[in-house]
Automatic annotation (TrEMBL), chain A:
<dbReference type="InterPro" id="IPR009072">
    <property type="entry name" value="Histone-fold"/>
</dbReference>
<keyword id="KW-0010">Activator</keyword>
<dbReference type="Pfam" id="PF04719">
    <property type="entry name" value="TAFII28"/>
</dbReference>
<keyword id="KW-0804">Transcription</keyword>
<dbReference type="InterPro" id="IPR045127">
    <property type="entry name" value="TAF11-like"/>
</dbReference>
<comment type="function">
    <text>TAFs are components of the transcription factor IID (TFIID) complex that is essential for mediating regulation of RNA polymerase transcription.</text>
</comment>
<dbReference type="GO" id="GO:0046982">
    <property type="term" value="F:protein heterodimerization activity"/>
</dbReference>
<dbReference type="GO" id="GO:0005669">
    <property type="term" value="C:transcription factor TFIID complex"/>
</dbReference>
<keyword id="KW-0805">Transcription regulation</keyword>
From TrEMBL, chain B:
<feature type="region of interest" description="Disordered">
    <location>
        <begin position="1"/>
        <end position="26"/>
    </location>
</feature>
<keyword id="KW-0805">Transcription regulation</keyword>
<keyword id="KW-0539">Nucleus</keyword>
<protein>
    <recommendedName>
        <fullName>Transcription initiation factor TFIID subunit 13</fullName>
    </recommendedName>
</protein>
<dbReference type="InterPro" id="IPR003195">
    <property type="entry name" value="TFIID_TAF13"/>
</dbReference>
<dbReference type="Pfam" id="PF02269">
    <property type="entry name" value="TFIID-18kDa"/>
</dbReference>
<comment type="similarity">
    <text>Belongs to the TAF13 family.</text>
</comment>
<keyword id="KW-0804">Transcription</keyword>
<dbReference type="GO" id="GO:0046982">
    <property type="term" value="F:protein heterodimerization activity"/>
</dbReference>
Length: 198, 146
């Protein structure tokens, strides 16, 4: 949803997803998803359909970047899957992915590609710590943790909605209830000293 | 005790960057776009009812329009979460003096999915760095060969 080319749909139409995702990562960019596959696989799997090589955009290769959050790996979903390298899990993922409806695919793509901007997260971390020295891995870890936290909140909010038998978009009351439940579970770090003068 | 509806910052909602007692200005809507995509990915609605009317038949892909107040609340919660996380990490890091990535990992020790995800992200980062280095070395070799 960020790129005009929508290489995701291109890759989807290939319908013969390449199998070896991992090693020859050339100048890819890091991002919070594990989509650091950088269109490697189509070129590295001779057994895959011959069309796969042509559909992969070369742009991702030349641009490496920590700064370039928007410049994302095009060939995302069908390449490096979360279980990097485990053939059984990968096969299972391929099987599941091939059966997604369009809406599910779009959601999954959103899930994989979304993430907090590194620059914004870095600014936030700098302002919290007061020090300028925030390493790149720290930003990456913080963004990853925050994203998973958002996921927990949204999923718990959805559960709350089904319990209350409500439909439609998620409302703030659901989020607050989800937040309260997460707090009870201990997943939200609590300050040992209460915040005064807020 | 937190009144979570007000959000962690003392800044008014309407203002974009009004400084308060803290030394930094925090704009609202910093994470708004990212959060919208994220919420859609995690299960929020693709379209609220009015956008559904507008977009019926025109959108080939789902676009995400969660309620703006939900997004704003989520942003507040996330900022508060990260803030508390960093403060806790600084507590453990204070003995060492520097804040390291390991402090975050230590904080996540109880939460296995997050811990695994963090280690995965870090190892991927390392892989990419190695790959980039190898790429640069190859380029140099090519350059010197000619």
């Amino acid at each position: 949803m960020k790129q005009s080319k929508d290489p995701f749909e291109v890759a989807f139409e290939e319908s013969s997803p390449p199998d070896s995702p991992v090693e020859e990562i050339v100048g890819g960019q890091i991002e919070d998803e594990d989509d650091a596959n950088v269109n490697v696989h189509p070129t590295s799997t001779p057994s895959a359909a011959p069309s796969s090589g042509t559909t992969v955009p070369p742009t991702a290769k030349s641009k490496d970047e920590d700064e370039e959050e928007e410049e994302e790996n095009m060939d995302v979903e069908l390449g490096k899957l979360p279980t990097s390298g485990d053939p059984h899990k990968m096969a299972k993922m391929q099987a599941i992915l091939s059966q997604f409806t369009e809406e599910q695919m779009s959601r999954y793509e959103s899930f994989r590609r979304s993430g907090f901007q590194k620059a914004n997260m870095k600014k936030l971390l700098v302002s919290i710590t007061g020090s300028q020295k925030i390493s790149a891995p720290m930003t990456i870890v913080a963004s990853g943790i925050a994203k998973m936290f958002v996921g927990e909140l949204v999923e718990t909010a959805r559960m709350v909605m089904t319990e209350r038998k409500e439909t439609g978009p998620i409302r703030p009351c659901h989020i607050r209830e989800a937040y309260r439940r997460l707090k009870l579970e201990g997943k939200v770090p609590r300050r040992s000293v209460s915040r005064l003068f807020r | 005790m937190n009144s979570s509806s007000a959000g962690p910052s003392s800044k008014p909602r309407a203002g974009s960057s009004q400084p308060s007692d803290s030394s930094f200005k925090r704009k609202r809507g910093v994470f708004q776009k990212d959060l919208q995509h994220m919420m859609y990915g995690f299960g929020d609605d693709a379209n609220t009812s009015w956008t559904a009317l507008l977009s019926a038949g025109f959108l080939s892909k789902q676009s995400s329009h969660p309620l703006p107040e939900t997004v704003a609340l989520l942003e507040d919660i996330v900022v508060e979460y990260v803030t508390d996380l960093v403060h806790k990490a600084q507590e453990t890091a204070s003995k060492r003096g520097k804040l390291l990535t390991e402090d975050f990992l230590f904080l996540m020790r109880k939460d296995l999915p997050k811990l695994n995800r963090c280690t995965e992200l870090l190892s991927m980062n390392e892989e990419l760095k190695q790959a980039r280095k190898a790429f640069d070395v190859d380029e140099e070799k090519l350059a010197t060969m000619e």
